[in-house]
Write a structure and sequence with these properties.
The complex is a heterodimer of chains A (about 250) and B (about 425). Chain A has about 250 residues and is α/β, with parallel strands linked by helices. Chain A contains ten helices and twelve strands. In chain A, helix 4 crosses helix 6. Chain B is of the alpha/beta class and about 425 residues long. The chains are: A alpha/beta (about 250), B alpha/beta (about 425). Chains A and B meet through helix 2, strand 7 and helix 3 of A and helix 8 and helix 9 of B.
Chain lengths: ~250, ~425
């Protein structure tokens, strides 16, 4: 589904990613781990097409297409979803209305019939029930006045509605207490299936205890320095990143 | 003082001289003329009109509608009466209460509506009207009382909590050039009452000047929620002065939508006179061309434990001009007052001008007061967030632009009023090529 080859990328002329290669297949959950400031979030921004970041060399293929040729909205319409580390607040934009617009944009892209507000109510209700979410998420403005945990839950609600093929979770665990973390992780688990893939970016192994990735990669100074199975997350919990930083 | 200002002043006083013989509220009109002469017609450096361009208004010779009410077009009135308000509506035509078009039969026993002259025939009521004008600082509010007649007095009975909103519709019928009208509304909300009030300004024709004054006295434990929609045509002048007096544990919540105009000015004077009194004031305007909209607000915390929250959102295109000049004064002894003023301006062109002047004057030492102002363009982080969910850039920008105003307008509790305000303001964005979501 996703094939990154020797990716070099950065911000304002500064190279942050220095040759990353990574392959994700359908049904897989991968995790990128590493300390702060080593390029994890840059990778997520590159995947979603943030205009502030630029790719200097390498390639990213997504379902056989050159991802770097696609605009941010095209990437979203093709099924890539980024759950933000810091979701922005949008006062005045009703959450349910926004979700319906995003949902319909995707249907339109797929050449399907659009849903009206009443039908979408049912779709949203089903997703909210699946995630055990409060009604307030329907009526409030997008992320406005939400606590850190509420914003992350709202990201997962969007993911549930949009049913992405590739979900990139950028530090979805940051700022969450244990209970909120469990809820968010359970939401991700309910949505992960054999038809999609998840790339979970985190620097704490705690999240991974809940979503159990099959593949774990350690990102240090813009390079993947080690890859392994879930055991690698366990090991990092015990040893930390020091040995990688010193080498 | 310039000759133009002196001329304008003399003409208005001369006009008042002719009008006074026919005035139905003579003591008020006389007191207002005295106050007008003392305050003088404002010049460019007047503190209250720093940001408003008054020249055109000053130099226009208006026909003050002081005679009997004009027969109004019932169809025009019906067009602006909101669903749910057909049995709870007061219609003012060119500033005059029109009993024929008004219908408050749905509020019998809860609300009483009488002509202002009847209200003012009570000695205490007239004394109060005169006392208010003697301390008035806004020269245009004085002008209203100099020429007002045919206004309306509304009483919300003690403990009344009508389910339906009460709408006051101000209609300007135009018909001749440069007509000036002076609508006057006095409302008393009795103790423990609760009412939703909607004030809609609408009109046809060009170049009229509506100079309105509304007094709201909110009793102990009472609550008034005001939704005000200023939808005059683009070539009209609109001035409104709203005096609000809130007693102990009373509450005033207001949402104001302004389409601007040749010159639209909203003056809010709010006095929190009892402990625990609270107010919120949210205002939005969308301006284009050379339109102007100005908010001038003075909030007085006169007693302890009072709270105020103000939010202004202006969206400006073309060479339009807005201003928000707001001062919160915490009076001596008004401890534990809490206030917040926030002004947001969204600039859609290089030549528009947004003026902001939030002020605090504090004479107590245990209060929490803050103010802030922003001037900017559409937030690119928000645009990207929406695009990353599959929305096109154009749709994302349209959604964000409309949401900027909707965040205020959606606070109107009566949905038809909120929708009307939304249509009035947001249709301007369509004219700018912004596709509405």
């Amino acid at each position: 589904m996703l094939e990154i080859k020797d990716l070099h990328a950065g911000l304002e002329g500064m190279e942050i990613l220095k040759g990353i290669s990574l392959t994700l297949n359908k049904g897989e959950i991968h995790s990128i781990m590493g300390p702060n400031g080593h390029g994890k979030s840059t990778l997520s921004k590159i995947l979603i097409g943030h205009p502030g970041f630029s790719v200097t060399s390498g390639s990213i293929a997504y379902n056989g297409k050159n991802l770097l040729d696609l605009s941010p909205e095209q990437r979203a319409l093709e099924g890539i979803f980024l759950a933000y580390q810091y979701p922005v607040e949008i006062p005045g934009v009703n959450n349910a209305e926004f979700l319906r617009m995003a949902y319909n944009a995707k249907l339109k892209h797929q050449g399907k019939e659009l849903v009206d507000p009443l039908d979408f109510e049912d779709i949203l209700s089903a997703k909210m029930a699946l995630l055990g979410m409060d009604e307030k998420y329907r009526e409030r403005s997008v992320n406005e006045g939400f606590s850190g945990g509420e914003k992350k839950k709202n990201e997962i609600l969007q993911m549930a509605v949009l049913e992405p093929q590739l979900a990139v979770l950028d530090e979805i665990d940051s700022g969450l207490d244990i209970d909120a973390l469990k809820i968010v992780a359970e939401g991700v688990n309910k949505l992960a299936n054999t038809g999609n893939a998840v790339l979970a970016i985190t620097h704490y192994p705690r999240l991974l205890q809940y979503i159990k990735p099959q593949h774990v990669h350690v990102l240090i100074r813009g390079k993947i320095v080690r890859s392994g199975g879930y055991d690698l997350a366990d090991e990092l919990e015990r040893t930390g990143y020091d040995r990688y930083l010193q080498s | 003082m310039t000759t133009a200002i002196r001329d304008a002043e003399s003409k208005l006083l001369e006009l008042h001289g002719k009008f006074r013989a026919a005035s139905s509220l003579l003591p008020l009109a006389e007191a207002a003329a005295l106050r007008f002469a003392a305050l003088r017609y404002p010049g460019k450096k007047h503190e209250m009109f720093t940001f408003a361009r008054l020249n055109e208004l000053r130099d226009t010779a208006f026909d003050y509608r002081t005679g009997p009410p004009k027969a109004a077009d019932a169809g025009l009135a019906r067009k602006h009466i909101y669903a749910g308000c057909d049995k709870s509506v007061i219609v003012m035509v060119d500033g005059k209460y029109d009993a024929g078009l008004s219908d408050v039969s749905g509020m019998t026993g809860q609300v009483s509506v009488v002509p202002l002259e009847q209200y003012a025939s009570g000695e205490a009521n007239m004394r109060r009207l005169v006392a208010d004008i003697e301390t008035e600082t806004d020269v245009f509010a004085c002008l209203n009382s100099m020429f007002s007649g045919g206004g309306v007095a509304v009483e919300i009975k003690k403990g009344a909590r009508p389910v339906a909103p009460l709408q006051i519709l101000h209609l300007s019928t135009g018909g001749a050039p440069n007509i000036a009208t002076s609508p006057r509304v006095v409302m008393d909300a009795g103790a423990d009452s609760s009412v939703q009030l909607i004030i809609r300004f609408a009109g046809i024709g060009e170049g009229y000047f509506v100079n309105s004054v509304c007094d709201l006295r909110i009793g102990e434990g009472a609550a008034v929620h005001l939704s005000q929609v200023q939808g005059d045509p683009a070539r009209a002048w609109h001035f409104s002065k709203t005096r609000v007096f809130v007693a102990k544990d009373g509450r005033f919540d207001a949402v104001s939508a302004s389409t601007g105009g040749r010159l639209a000015r909203h003056h809010w004077e709010c006095r929190l006179q009892g402990e625990g009194a609270a107010l919120t004031l949210r205002a939005a305007s969308i301006l284009e061309g050379t339109e102007q909209a100005h908010h001038y607000t003075r909030v007085h915390h006169e007693k302890p434990n009072t709270t105020s929250y103000e939010l202004y959102k202006n969206m400006l295109n073309g060479s339009s001009v807005s201003s928000v000049d707001t001062t919160v004064t915490v009076h001596p002894g008004a401890q534990l007052a809490v206030s917040e003023q926030l002004i947001n301006n969204l600039m859609l062109s290089e030549t528009a001008k947004a003026n902001t002047k939030p002020n605090l004057t504090i004479f107590a030492d245990d209060v929490k007061c803050k103010h802030g102002a922003t001037v900017g363009r559409i937030d690119e982080a928000q645009v990207f967030y929406l695009m990353s969910r599959g929305l096109s850039e154009k749709l994302a920008k349209a959604l964000l632009t409309t949401s900027f105003a909707k965040s205020v307008l959606n606070a109107m509790p009566h949905k038809p009023a909120a929708e009307d305000a939304g249509k009035l303001l947001l249709k301007k964005l369509e004219a700018l090529g912004i596709e509405l979501a």
